Amino acid sequence: MGLEFKDETFRGDFTFSNSPAAIARFPFPFDRDDYMYAVNLEPHVPRRAGSVFEHAFDVDEHYVAEMRDRAMVLAEDPLRCQSLPHMTLAGWDLLELIMEAKARDYPQWFSLTRDGNRWHWVNRPLGIDQHFIFMDDSTLPHGPMEYITRQTQGDFTLQDQREDMLWMDAGMVTTQADWSLDFDIGMNFHEWHAPVPLAHEKGIFDRALKFLLNVRHGAPARRFNWTMTVDPLLDTSPETYPVWGPSRTTITPENLGHRMHLRVELQTFFRLPRSNALVFPIRCYLIRFDELATVPKWARRLHRVIRDLPVELSTYKGFERNRAMMVDWLAKHDDGAPTTPGWWPE
Amino acid sequence: MSGGAKIAVRVAAVTPVNELVSRFRFVRRDGGAMPAFSGGAHTVVEMDDAGTRRMNPYSLMSDPADTSGYEISVRRDDAGRGGSLFMHRQVKPGIEMVISNPVNLFALDLRAKKHLMIAGGIGITPFIAQMAQLSAMGGRFELHYACRSAALASYACDLSARHGGRVHLYVDDQGQAMDLPGLLAGQPLGTHLYICGPKPMIDWARGTAAHAGWPKAAVHHEEFLAPPVGAAFKVQLAASGKTVTVGTHQSLLEAIEAAGVDAPYLCRGGACGQCETGVVSCDGQLLHNDHWLSDAEKAAGGKIIPCVSRFAGARLVLDR
Amino acid sequence: MKTAFEPSIRSRPVYGELEPRKGSAHLVLADGEGAGAVIDLLARAGSAAACALAHMHIIYMPGPDGVDHFAELQALGAAQCHRAPSFAAALPRLRRVLQDAHMGMQIYLAGTEGLMGQGQSEVMAAGLPHDAVQMEHRGPTLRRVQCVHCKGITENVATDPFECTHCGLNLFVRDHYSRRIAAFQGVNIDAEEPGNVPPPVVRFR
To answer: What is the value of pTM for the model shown?
Structure first.
């Protein structure tokens, strides 16, 4: 695979951009011209070759740069990665899940060899060569969840399943859309979703919870979520809101195409074997409006979705302030032609 | 999503444990490692008994860290629907079978400062796996195991040898009885209680714990309901346009599956809600045997759990 | 009478009324007007009150507004009844009692949200499930609020917005609540337009 890892930044000078190949495989989340919350869960099985669904854990051209950004976030704020004591076993389950998947799907970059509980992991892109004893955390530089998620794109939350409920008792959260792991850790499914408007009344979370409680080992699921971000800033946390908040007021019609980003989260759900916990990887993909507009179907559709979105959603997702400007910009790319169902580009 | 991930296995060994119980060992046909699992998990074993398809859940009793194979123990029930008889009479070493990936509806609460286990009879099986897991993790646990006779105290010797003074045995026909109120009174704050065995024992233990002021969230139990036998009845499946007859020894879920209609399931024991089905119309009485629907839902009659529940009356139409 | 709260989001705790429960021991933690909830609880217990009192340990402190009903609590005749000047002062005693407690102990919390939340947090750390603890709200609705930016907690917040007593940022008070931290979340209100701070409104008394 002739993929080159990009050397780019998600802060400061914001040199992040998508290659044409990355744009073509971008997980555009809208399959129709309007949007409302739904329990849009489906089995996480391999689909088109080259798509973000092809592998259990997608590695793309932004891998090395994203891991570098994560390390910086953690150095500034270690509270972005926490694990309540009873979740260490789940951390080992996650480490095994990711190492096995990556060694299988990307053997040119990752390898895992095992002799009983003596494991040897090689991560060539990050220059890691690690011997360790599985289940013995004194043989790794960090706890197992932190160790492996420092090498995997996307955020991770681990849920303990107790009393017919899911409890977010561990996580690595550095690419979040404005929520705090430190505040939410220990909450249950309904509690950490409490601030989301409209969805509770529609019964979305009750149905989603019932589905997730029954996710089985060997049968993972997935869904999408989305929002908007000014500048390709992965770390939009409540903690640092005073730092990035002002950028929302500096958008102009001239810079919008370059600075406004659609931010898509591919959420997957895996049952973990030894702990019976559930892991939710939350993988973040960014695309600026200029790049998105190179796909005519997406530009037309995004215009219609944003124009007609209920104000409660645009407010909760943090872009109501700039919505009119976004709609005007997108309107230029919408010739009113019908769009085909589904979200693959035409 | 019926069943989900399954494992193609071969029976590696069948070992009689005592007059009523035999142990079965499964290994993967492709020689690979079994998935690791969490103590308390069960697997659903598929059986083809001369044309009657059965899928029975059995607790995994082997060490969760031992991925070379899975072990279950089956207690022969001569008066049951035939699943345990099939296992005891037809399943021999070398035959090929299909079992499900492990599913856990009786998990340990790993926050517990101590795990107190109460087992009755064949209810010992999930605890065997859990104690192996806790031992490896350095967890604190104690087992109190009641059985009818020393001969039927499956695995008691083995467990005492492995876990020493943490195992306490009460043999009924030697007049030994568990002082549960006394046992509960001395437990430190943060102890969790786990109960597995026959229904009357579970009800007694839960009632004793409630009376002693234990919070519900610290008391866990597992009881696999065998689908009850009952009078045969007809059901109309509205979505698939079929009518099926549910036999006396067949569950409603099995009848739906036998008609070629795919219905989701998970535990097949009335505990998880995965097979919940909408009732389109009902002229008669729904016989609810599950632990999933609330009392209000059962009374409202809009839903049924087909793996264990039945019907008596003139006409039942389901949304399948 | 327990405090009546407006309906809110699902992470905002909802409190009930203390009711007598069977148990081997009874631990009561209360502040200010929470004393009234304890007295009402024992009245509800009727003939079972004497036995409960014989195995009851009350830890009480005055409320944030200085309300102090210790004398009335002492008159109940519980086996142990202690007045602490503050929660911080009561904490070593509370931890010692929980350390040797057995399953079957019933826990009752009454009074302000801040006191009950911190008490519940200690009980959870000792290993009891969070809903094993009964809670009844009485008295001021002043809030404990954690600043999501500096992690400092400001006690007895009355206005929205307010100034974080640790880092000085102006914070708006959310209903989003963490049992683990025993506090509501405060978020910088003028992050997007620094200096644009609405006048504080008294929301909690």
So the answer is: 0.92
